[in-house]
Design brief:
The complex is a heterodimer of chains A (319) and B (716). Chain A has 319 residues and is mainly α. Chain A is built from ten helices and two strands; from the N terminus they run H-H-H-H-H-H-H-E-H-H-E-H. Chain B is mainly alpha-helical and 716 residues long. Chain B folds into two domains: 504 residues, Cytochrome C Oxidase, Chain A (Up-down Bundle); 182 residues, Cytochrome c-like domain (Cytochrome Bc1 Complex, Chain D, domain 2). Chain B starts with a strand and ends with a helix. The chains are: A mainly alpha (319), B mainly alpha (716).
Chain lengths: 319, 716
């Protein structure tokens, strides 16, 4: 008994430990995200665990009460001077088991003992457990129905159809988002940089998740170019930065982020990138591309001065 | 009636039992190392080399525990139980030893070649063609010895254990031969005969049924012998034995496609996989019920006897994993569970629980018997039991938690309909603590096994080995028996029985494979998909050699979450027609890292160059090992022509005589990559003969063919 209790406690501790480790880390990763569903799942899982725990405790209590009662009866019997005879009764478990399985009781099993003897192994000829048979029939029937509704009269969608439906739903969501006006929308053809500190910090977290592996945490560059100098491969004005992030650069490691990030996130990260310009990174990569001076110069003028790469301009902040 | 005297040979059983313990410890140790590498890739520090990297140790672990640990246990159990059940010595002692040494030779060959990188990449069938041939030959020897024994028996009817042995024998033979059809291009290198979708179907028909007919049915046979012997109770139901045996072997063989749900496998084949997996619950549980109900009236002894304790947990674990299996086969659940650590937990509940614990139970019973003594220490055996059980829990529960985290993060959208965790790495770093727990569980389990070795060692020292046991039985007279149970008639006719079980297991495979191979519409061709260039072919072989497919899939399923994650540029999931030149297929079965099917052209060459040298430079926190040897070794240019002509034989449309030009083409493409690396900023100096260049060429090609047209129009 003692070992069993100990093990139940072990088991529960382990389960709780691993489980809470999982949920805690999942939550921290979400940050300010809104993964309502995950949260509900976690809560439901915890509720289930507690329920199981309660059940275990309850069963244990019943067992304890039963053994106390028995002990008291024994003492009472001793006091009266009569011998205590334990009730000879099959446990409910055995009874349910025998009923469910339609087993021949152990005491009567000689009636169904077959005359085989294989190296001392004998076989009984018990019935197939009725619940087992029912389960088998059930799975066969469900399987026939399954094939029927997916392939004969295709009521349920197969994978390509399911995918099309999923895409459609996503488009509807986009449309409803745009229509409701509940979320900030921006014109991707004419994005405006933001200097709102919340936007900049949101841009920074987007940068830290997605960009630092190629551009370094401080924007000093690595596989991707240095973002802190005034030289730009694909244009240094806000629209160009936005477009580069949005559409990516074919044939390089810069993917099109439009499917990964929302326009607002791209606006934010582009705004954040502009704040990096002029800072001093730890390991700056040599300048690449064309000099862009964010003064009143037009794009044509920048292109005209493209050859003058030698000049290093000092810190130039956009705002 | 005259009694004949004969002897049971215990020596061969002893050999196999020693082998199973030895390889068991080795296999578990390699598994533990692999588990540690998954959260601490730097385990080997300066000794990190090709042979001890995760991608090479992983197949070593699976092959060792399946074919060496479990395999030798099957043979030990068969060589012990068969003679006793059939009242005859084994057919041939000599064949027994050929079988034993042949099998150990195969294992040693595997233990040497897998770390060296000789692999076909097909899971649980990684061994290269010369070893495949050895396996076939040894299996034939085993088969002759087994069937021979059945034919010279003195017991008229075959007991249920023998049915399971026979079904396992024929099915493993069929599975191994069909899945191993490959075209050798040199000693220790071959290409699978099948390509893409077809290769995947054959492989998972094999993979699933290797679990069924190597890990399950032979062990059910062992259970049917050793459990009633150890419990000293009659088997619960003969009827149940019959029904669950035939339904199990017939239904099992169909269920393979559940490993390929939502892939490019045709829908009808996937659905067959789903329903046959579901129908498998009852037949599987039939075995569990017959085992557990046999213990009726012996439960008081289960509490005390470690042998029975191990067996009960084994059977329960069997029941649990055969319930999980069908649940995992449902499309909706499979969608979130496939590629996650759930699958790893699932197979280990089966492996550690069912196979491991049954093996331990049998050894604790059989060794004292053969040494004519009692177990050295019951206490130690009980300790082993509890440590082992804790080990299983510590192993499985963290991985269930890991699954929970993975599946919720991979599919999580934010309110804008974009992925909440678009950087795959975030989902990897979250589960590191679970991997630590898992390795701890594995270590506990291994510690338990070591305790067993000590205990058995002391037991053997205490007793004296009985090489032969005398027995006697009357000769089996030829006579016609009429009437009786219909199945009893079958139990008297071993040849007919063997043929019928062969028919039962062939039906499912034929039904699924023949249409997939013959009907064109099952794999719609895509015109743009062209054969790999010679350099890409070399790179692909490096990808195979390094076991990349163990952690990276190449199969983007048609879910918005996957398409967005793995192909944000063009939003294309993987199509059947893209894999027609893939000998073998490399879809993978686990995503410890992200899917790579659309990685081609996603990053620059420099990204891959840096990434493979030290993954943390491009992906901080990555668990991927580094591959410095790819930057020192040259790819096997001399094999280029053989590779091209082998591929042509397999149906890849290289022009006749292309071999002459292949090396030059290969060098040209390599030079282009090297030039682009040098032109980058910072400039990377490399050499066109290096393996890394070939690997980059392959990775940059992946999944790009269907985009060729778009690229052309873009360039205009």
């Amino acid at each position: 008994m003692k070992t069993i209790n100990k093990n139940i406690i072990y088991l529960l501790t382990i389960f709780f430990l691993t489980f809470s480790a999982g949920s805690v880390s999942a939550q921290t990763a979400e940050g300010s995200g809104t993964s309502q569903e995950t949260l509900i799942m976690i809560v439901m899982g915890l509720v289930l665990l507690v329920a199981i725990l309660v059940l275990v405790v309850a069963i244990y209590m019943v067992m304890v009460i039963k053994s106390i009662l028995k002990r008291e009866e024994k003492i009472a019997a001793m006091e009266k001077g009569i011998k205590y005879i334990e009730e000879e009764k099959e446990s409910w478990w055995t009874r349910i088991n025998n009923k469910l399985n339609r087993s021949v009781p152990v005491e009567e099993e000689s009636e169904v003992l077959l005359d085989h003897d294989y190296d001392g192994i004998k076989e009984l000829d018990n019935h197939l457990p009725p619940w087992w048979k029912a389960l088998f029939y059930f799975t066969v029937i469900v399987s026939v129905i399954y094939l029927f509704v997916y392939h004969v009269i295709p009521i349920f969608p197969l994978q390509e159809e399911e995918y099309a439906m999923e895409l459609e739903k996503a488009e509807e969501l986009q449309a409803s988002l745009a229509a409701s006006g509940s979320v900030e929308t921006i014109d991707i053809n004419n994005p405006e940089p933001s200097d709102d500190p919340t936007d900049i910090s949101s841009g920074q977290s987007v940068f830290n998740i997605n960009c630092l592996s190629c551009h370094a945490a401080d924007g000093g560059g690595g596989i991707g170019p240095n973002l802190t100098d005034n030289y730009w491969l694909h244009g240094g004005d806000f629209q160009s930065i936005f477009d580069t992030v949005h559409e990516g650069v074919s044939g390089t490691s810069m993917i099109a982020w439009k499917n990964v990030l929302t326009p607002v996130q791209i606006r934010d990260v582009s705004s954040y990138i502009q704040t990096l310009v002029g800072t001093t990174p730890a390991n700056p990569k040599a300048p690449e591309g064309e000099l862009y001076e964010p003064s009143e110069m037009s794009v044509d003028q920048v292109e005209a001065s493209a050859d003058t790469v030698a000049t290093e301009t000092d810190s130039l902040q956009t705002n | 009636m005259q009694l004949e005297k004969f002897k049971y040979d215990n020596t061969i059983v002893k050999y196999f039992a020693f082998a199973t313990t030895f390889w068991g410890i080795v296999g578990m140790l390699v598994g533990l190392i692999a588990a540690i590498l998954m959260f601490y890739p730097n385990l080997f520090g300066g000794l990190h080399d090709g042979w001890n990297s995760f991608g090479r140790l992983r197949p070593l672990h699976t092959n060792a525990v399946i074919f060496a640990f479990v395999g030798n246990m099957i043979f030990a159990g068969v060589y012990y139980s068969m003679p006793r059940l059939l009242k005859t010595p084994m057919y041939s002692k000599f064949l027994g030893y050929v079988h034993f040494w042949g099998w150990q030779l195969i294992i040693v060959a595997a233990a040497i070649t897998l770390p060296l990188g000789f692999t076909t990449s097909k899971e649980y069938a990684e061994l290269e063609w010369p070893i495949d041939i050895m396996i076939t030959l040894v299996w034939v020897v085993f088969g002759i010895n087994m069937i021979g024994t059945v034919l010279i028996r003195r017991e008229r009817h075959m007991y249920v254990a023998i049915w399971f042995y026979i079904a396992s024998l024929v099915t493993v033979a069929v599975l191994h031969i069909v899945n191993s059809i490959e075209l050798p291009i040199s000693f220790m290198k071959s290409y699978s005969w099948y390509a893409g979708v077809q290769d995947a179907l054959v492989q998972w028909w094999y993979g699933h049924n290797a679990v069924a007919f190597f890990l399950t049915t032979p062990f059910l046979g062992l259970m049917y012998y050793f459990l009633p012997k150890a419990a000293n109770r009659p088997v619960y139901s003969y009827k149940l034995s019959i029904i669950h045996f035939w339904s199990l072997i017939f239904i099992y063989i169909w269920a393979g496609p559940h490993h390929l749900l939502y892939t490019s496998l045709p829908d009808w084949a996937q659905s067959l996989g789903v329903v046959f997996s579901f129908m498998l619950i009852a037949p599987s549980w039939g075995g569990m019920l017959n085992g557990l109900l046999t213990l009726r009236g012996a439960w008081d002894r289960v509490r005390e006897d470690p042998v029975l304790k191990f067996m009960v947990v084994a059977i329960t674990a069997y029941g649990m994993s055969t319930f999980e299996g069908p649940m995992l086969s449902f499309k909706n659940f499979n969608a979130v569970a496939h590629f996650t650590d759930y699958i790893i937990a699932h197979v280990h509940v089966g492996g550690l629980g069912w196979n491991g614990f049954l093996t331990f139970g049998i050894l604790y019973w059989m060794i004292p018997k053969m040494w004519n003594t009692t177990l050295h220490s019951r206490k130690l055996a009980n300790m082993h039991f509890w440590i082992g059980t804790l080990g299983i829990l510590f192993y499985a529960l963290p991985l269930y938690a890991a699954f929970f985290v993975q599946s919720s993060m991979w599919f999580q959208f934010n309110e804008f309909g974009k992925l909440e965790y678009n950087n795959f790495l975030d989902t990897v770093t979250q589960i590191v603590p679970m991997y630590v727990f898992r390795a701890f569980g594995g270590a506990l389990y291994l510690a338990g096994a070591i305790i067993m070795v000590v205990n058995l060692w002391k037991t053997m020292a205490k007793g004296s080995f009985q090489a032969e046991e005398e027995a006697e039985a009357p000769k089996l007279e030829k006579k016609k028996i009429l009437g009786g149970h219909w199945h009893a008639a079958l139990e008297r006719k071993p040849v007919l029985f063997t043929v019928l079980s062969l028919v039962a297991i062939l039906i499912g495979g034929i039904f699924e494979m023949v249409p997939t191979f013959l009907i064109k519409s099952n794999v719609p061709t895509i015109e743009n998909v062209k054969p790999y260039t010679p350099l890409e072919l070399h790179g692909r072989d490096i990808y195979i050699r390094e076991g990349c497919a163990y952690c990276h899939s190449q199969m983007i399923r048609p879910f918005r979450a996957e398409v967005l994650r793995y192909d944000p540029n063009d939003m294309e999931y993987s199509k059947a027609g893209e894999f027609v030149y893939d000998h073998p297929f490399l879809w993978g079965s686990k995503r410890t890292g992200p899917d790579l099917h659309r990685v081609g052209k996603k990053y620059g060459h420099d990204w891959h160059y840096n990434h493979m040298y030290d993954p943390t430079t491009t992906s901080p926190g990555s668990l991927m090992p580094s591959y410095p040897w790819l930057y020192e070794n040259s790819y096997d240019k001399a094999a280029t022509e053989d590779k091209i002509s082998a591929m042509r034989t397999l149906g890849v449309p290289y022009e006749e005589g292309y071999e002459a030009q292949a090396v030059a083409d290969s060098e040209k493409q390599a030079q282009e990559i090297v030039d682009q690396l040098a032109a980058g900023e910072p400039s990377i100096q490399s050499h066109p003969d290096l393996e890394i260049i070939a690997l980059i060429a392959y990775l940059q090609r992946l999944g790009t063919d269907i985009k060729v047209e778009e690229n052309l129009t873009e360039n205009k």
